[in-house]
Amino acid sequence: MDISKIQLVFKENSKIEKIIEQNSFPSSYTLNDKIKAYLNSKAQQIIKYHNPYLEFNINNINVNSTKNVFMLDYLPRYVFMVAYTLSHTNHPYLIYFNLDDKFINVLLPFGREYQQANTEDYINVINSIVKNKNTSQIKKKSKTKTKSNLKSKIAMNESNKSLLTAIYVLLDNTIKTRKYGIIYSKFSILTCENMTLCTHKNTEISKMNIQEIEKQHLYIKVQDYYRIIGIELLQHYFNLLEKKEYGKANDFLKGGHNKFSEYYGKTRLNTFFKNNRSILGHLEVFISLYELLSICMLKLNLFI
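Above: the chain's sequence. Below: its structure in token form.
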């Protein structure tokens, strides 16, 4: 597997926990506080090194989340951080490491733009990961195998487990961030100009022989009405994806062209919203992200 297409690796001079403990932090800082401060510092350096056009979001808490640093029970010495940038919120990085190691691993943001990694590269890496036989089985045969070989297999399983976990955390947070942005952020597609029937209704209002203040009141009322419908349609789309009904989701997004389609003659995303590449493209990417999330989870379940 060519993991370099999705991951950067940086090496410290000492074990990371030792570096964190030796840094000068306020006396009130717990180990977790120190880890977060260390992560923020490294994220700022790494992102600027990798893409000079981006600035690390020092607050580093997405509006849709109250947590961006994760420590998991099945990998107690590992730390994972979702690192957001100021301008590319939908494309976060994922930084992770073992406190007992010297290496800092950085997963690249999902996307097809400069310094991003596409989902195909992630799929190739996930599919290439193979779990070594159960360590208990290895130990039974340890008389004929060297201890170093045993340690190597155990270490490889842990490395693969941490990589799959990192990919899962990055995917999960990327999806949540994009869903929030599509519906609630300033980049939301739920504006009247993007909703076909809303624009038609506004055109009708503009031709009415009423005072301007009344028109403005009607504009707001119409947009609120169609916004609610839009949210319901988007939630239906996301529910299909969460249930792994990718074919139905694609049909609901841009299908329904023949009478055999479940959505034939019904409101679909490509009829409710303007049927253009910008809007549908931002929605279509969720299918590949959810499919990748499922593939990753299936593989990760072999390790935990």
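Strands lie at 7-11, 69-72, 75-83, 93-98, 103-107.
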